[in-house]
Design brief:
Blueprint (H helix, E strand, L loop, with lengths): L12 E4 L9 E5 L4 E6 L4 H5 L9 E5 L2 E7 L9 H24 L9
Antiparallel strand pairs: 1-2, 2-3, 3-5, 4-5
């Protein structure tokens, strides 16, 4: 059996839980997309937005039954050598740390996703 590179798309999703987050909340980064989300299941975007204002570069986005606080993050090419992607990975982790820090600094977010 041969695998044709055109037949499928490689996607890598990094999901982080813990770090003082509500057990139902998580940070999600899809390497092939240009954002990092702090996601709250069973949350409506309008209810989330009432807890703002948020930092200027943070947006609230509806993701199905969940709502997420989103920051831009560079795309990461998983097939490239790491040295060419290291700055992008570093920026993605920086955005993750910003979202977790924002969550910890704003206890009103802790009740989301319940």
């Amino acid at each position: 059996m041969q695998l044709n590179a055109d037949c499928c798309e490689l996607k890598k999703i990094f999901t982080l839980k813990g770090s003082g987050l509500n057990p139902r909340a998580y940070v999600n980064h899809k390497a092939d997309r240009d954002y990092v989300d702090l996601t709250f299941p069973n949350t409506d975007k309008q209810d989330f937005e009432k807890l703002g204002p948020f930092d200027a570069d943070m947006i609230v986005h509806q993701t199905g039954k969940s709502a997420a606080l989103r920051l831009e993050s560079p795309l990461i090419d998983q097939l490239a050598d790491f040295s060419s992607q290291a700055a992008f990975v570093n920026k993605a982790f920086h955005q993750v740390l910003r979202l977790v820090g924002y969550y910890k600094a704003h206890p009103e977010l802790h009740r989301l996703g319940q």
